[in-house]
Structure formats: C-alpha cells, structure tokens
Amino acid sequence: MTPAPPPSASVLFVCVHNAGRSQMAAALLARLGGDRVEVRSAGSAPADAVNPAVVAAMAEVGVDIAAATPEVLTAEAVRASDVVVTMGCGDACPYFPGKRYLDWTLDDPAGRDVEAVRPIRDAIERHVRDLLAELGVEARA
Known about the structure:
By secondary structure, the chain is an alpha/beta fold. The protein has four helices and four strands. The chain has a four-stranded parallel β-sheet, covered by helices on one side.
C-alpha cells in the first residue's frame, strides 16, 4: 500500500475564545480537506469549553465536535502553519513574516442559540470551501 502524501498546506484558525468560529472552521476544513490539509485551531484567551450551541449546529451537519477543547494560541502553532485565519481576535494574534494571513469577518456565536449559529456555520463552510479551492485541494463531498 502506498503511503498517503503529506498535507499540501497547514491552516491555523484563530479566534479569541476558540469556542465557536475557529472550532467550526477547523472541523469543517478537516472534514472537507481530509488528510490533504493539516488543521489547527486556537484562541488568544481560550474558554473552558466549546459553545454547546456550536456543538449542536455542527452535529446537524454530521460533524461531531463534542470532544473538542479550546486551545491556547502559541507562537509555535503560528510558525507551523502556512495560512493563519483570524476571526475577530484583533491585536491578540501574533504576526510572523512569510505566513499568509486571512481575516474572516463573522458574527460571534457566543451567547446565541442553535438557530442563530446556523448561518454563522454556513458562512464558515463557504469560506472553508473557498480556501480549499485557493489551496488547490478538492473538497470532499
């Protein structure tokens, strides 16, 4: 059996609490990009747990993030990534020359119910699909 090729890109999703937007983006990129993209997510001030409405909204589309935990943003994670996607973390995100930085303007799901999280999830999926196309990675069905 031939080993799988290494990932074609490494992407880090960053938001303040790493409990909503960045968790959804990472899970969707992992699902749609598979082993062709290395995925990380982190927050500048991580929460204690992923937002339950986010977990529920992702479960509706068949993505289980119930066991996901918010992670602290480290300089090492930024250095190890080709693309850094920020989602409202402002000045708290470290900058390293030579990295590709994107900023996705998305509503914050904090304090919202599942119904309000769905359009945020769907917007993130559109961004993720566009990013995969830019990286030359065909999205999985």
